[in-house]
Amino acid sequence: MLNGVDRQALGDVTEAVKVRPELAKFEFRLENRWEDGARNRSLVDGFAGVGTEQEHPAPFALSNDEPLVLLGTDSAPNPVEYLLHALAGCLTTSLVYHAAARGIAVRGVKTRFEGDLDLRGFLGLSHEVRKGFREIRAVFEIEGDLTHAQKRELMKVGQAFSPVFDMVSRGVPVSCRLAEESFRAMPSAA
């Protein structure tokens, strides 16, 4: 074990995927229900991976709301805070796993994420203002017997291999449809 990662198991997974690339295909999913006002609740129960359906030992419930100043009840993080959490978690996990694979011991990783958002886009007050974050800043504190250059390299490795960093920084197509429509029957956006 290094950095809490079973290096032998990580190597075994890597070799298995080299031999059988179809094992690398995953589908993650959740179901969400609107509760009231800004409150939503998602349930994460299962996913598809390594060629079969997988289940978590127990479902995970995730709630989101908005702060009082944004007309919510402030009972949970808001969706953009969850996005920052997802980005932080994925960058950190990618950094730690790849450090372990390279035999690099890390004692701790602490990050701070900030994102700038202008409500004029969401409120439809300006078509020139982006609806989402216009910038996200992250600061990493990496603890270990590492030089500044090694810490910088690990931070870059996290960015290079993080699925969430890839999705946020490069975008990902998102298709939406009504439950009663099939994806094939959707009209093209014109």
Structure explained in plain terms:
The chain is of the alpha+beta class and 190 residues long. It folds into two domains: 76 residues, GMP Synthetase, Chain A, domain 3 (2-Layer Sandwich), CATH 3.30.300.20; 94 residues, GMP Synthetase, Chain A, domain 3, CATH 3.30.300.20. It is 33% helix and 26% strand. It contains five helices and six strands. The strands form two sheets. Strands 1, 2, 3 and 4 form a four-stranded antiparallel sheet that branches. Helix 2 crosses helix 4. The longest helix has 23 residues. The protein is globular and about 50 Å long. 9% of the residues are buried.
Give short descriptive properties of this protein.
about 190 residues, alpha+beta, GMP Synthetase, Chain A, domain 3, four-stranded antiparallel β-sheet, two-stranded antiparallel sheet, 5 helices, 6 strands, about 35% helix, globular
Name the helicity range. 25-40%
The H/E string reads HEEEEHEHEHH
Highest-level CATH class of the largest domain: Alpha Beta
Distance between the termini: 53 Å
Indicate the multimeric state: single chain
Strand share of the residues?
Answer: 25-35%
Helix/strand class: alpha+beta
Give the overall form: globular
CATH fold type of the largest domain: GMP Synthetase, Chain A, domain 3
Report the biggest beta sheet as strand number plus sense, adding barrel if it closes.
4 strands, antiparallel
Give the CATH superfamily of the largest domain. K homology (KH) domain
Q: How big is the Rg?
A: 20 Å
Q: How many E strands?
A: 6
Low-confidence stretches: none
CATH architecture annotation name of the largest domain: 2-Layer Sandwich
Number of H/I helices: 5
Mean pLDDT: 95
Give the count of structural domains. Answer: 2
